[in-house]
Design brief:
With 142 residues, the chain is α+β, with helices and mostly antiparallel strands. Helices cover 27% and strands 30% of the residues. The chain has 4 helices and 8 strands.
């Protein structure tokens, strides 16, 4: 079960109907980079550490290629990946040119049941951070 730090913040937008209300945002830690991720994969599998980058590269190549060709991918124990597009409209079909009208391509992950269940079990811990970035259970003093 995961434990996520959350940071309280106040809505300071005076035009908002919720001005002054308090909310939480997730405190994200530094991004785990490739080598650290590959070490995690090697430690949780029977794959020799020297082979993990080879497998990772092959999987990445196939995922990108298949997504870019319009496939949805069911990634076991993670969920389904697919691309989604946004586009501008035109008054007639003849005016529509995909290369000019498509404005965004996004990657969408629909988590599998296993991931959804894990997310329901995440615990949250309210933390504050000092001006120097150290965690503290108490709000910083002004």
């Amino acid at each position: 079960m995961g434990m996520m730090n959350v940071i309280p913040y106040q809505n300071n937008n005076e035009k908002s109907d919720f001005f002054g209300w308090w909310y939480f945002r997730a405190k994200l830690f530094p991004t785990i980079m490739k080598d650290e991720l590959l070490n995690h994969i090697a430690s949780d599998s029977r794959i020799d550490r020297s082979m993990v980058p080879v497998v990772n590269k092959a999987v990445t190549k196939q995922v990108v290629e298949l997504l870019c060709n319009g496939h949805q991918l069911n990634i076991p124990h993670i969920g389904t990946l697919r691309l989604s597009i946004s586009s501008k409209g035109t008054k007639t079909a003849e005016e529509y040119h995909a290369g000019q009208c498509i404005t965004k391509v996004r990657l969408v992950l629909t988590p599998c049941k296993e991931v959804k269940e894990a997310l329901k079990k995440v615990k949250f811990r309210k933390v504050y951070y000092t001006k120097k970035g150290s965690p503290s259970p108490e709000p910083p003093t002004p």
